[in-house]
Write a structure and sequence with these properties.
This protein is mostly helical and 244 residues long. The protein has nine helices and two strands; from the N terminus they run ααβααααααβα.
Length: 244
């Protein structure tokens, strides 16, 4: 990907976005992530890395009391995800992270243009491009698979939550659960690697920095995003859609 972007990719082109008048009404710093959203992200990141390290490091040599650390990190991840679902459902713009009709239309336009077929230029993005939304769906599938199976697997070890009961399910059911949990873990390694790679890409650094500061520059916002699709809070607007 880095080689393609560096040597072969053409400059991106979009349909006309905000007018100069609309751009001037925007604040110099565009709020992207609330403090709550940033705290959730870093708690989830810490628990995710702990889970991956404790799951796979013992397989390559180092031995330690990984089971205890693993189920503690899994519990933190589970609580943080439940909190995120509630927070996103009632306090944020829940649908901003889900693909919509415009995303699919623009994806088709980009595909046609990639094969040198005539097509109108795609529109600038809302808060989240389609690629982010599809990544979010992949995280939902793998993350929930790991969490649901992990909660049941807690019954096989001593924890503060359950009394150990390895006979809760049949051997076949336990086997299926372990396979699904392992596949989800391997999938999460790939997804986390992709996430870290794009987070450190030069063109994505303003987004990465906004996960620390909570905001991005107006110039970067106007380059990639359409203020008519991502409504930003201004001095005359008290609400911001898709706060996180």
């Amino acid at each position: 990907h880095a080689v393609y972007v560096r040597y072969f990719a053409k400059a991106r082109s979009f349909a006309p976005g905000a007018s100069p008048e609309e751009a001037l009404r925007l604040p110099e710093r565009i709020p992207r992530y609330s403090l709550v959203a940033r705290l959730f992200h870093w708690v989830m990141a810490a628990s995710m890395f702990t889970l991956l390290i404790t799951a796979f490091l013992p397989k390559v040599g180092p031995q330690f009391d990984w089971v205890t650390w693993h189920w503690i990190a899994g519990s933190v991840l589970t609580v943080s995800v439940v909190f995120h679902i509630v927070h996103a459902s009632f306090w944020l713009d829940f649908w901003s992270i889900w693909p919509d009709k415009i995303d699919l239309q623009d994806a088709w336009r980009r595909t046609l243009r990639a094969f040198a077929r005539p097509a109108p230029p795609p529109r600038k993005f809302a808060k989240y491009p389609l690629e982010n939304k599809l990544y979010h769906l992949a995280i939902i599938a793998t993350g929930l698979s790991a969490i649901v199976t992990g909660v049941f697997m807690l019954r096989r070890v001593e924890t503060i939550f359950f009394t150990r009961n390895p006979y809760l399910f049949s051997d076949m059911t336990w086997g299926f659960m372990y396979v699904l949990h392992g596949l989800a873990g391997v999938g999460l390694i790939g997804l986390v690697t992709i996430h870290v790679y794009f987070a450190v890409r030069p063109e994505k650094l303003p987004i990465t920095k906004s996960m620390i500061s909570g905001s991005m520059s107006r110039e970067f916002f106007l380059k990639d995003h359409d203020p008519r699709r991502w409504i930003v809070r201004t001095s005359t607007s008290r609400s911001m859609k898709g706060e996180a």
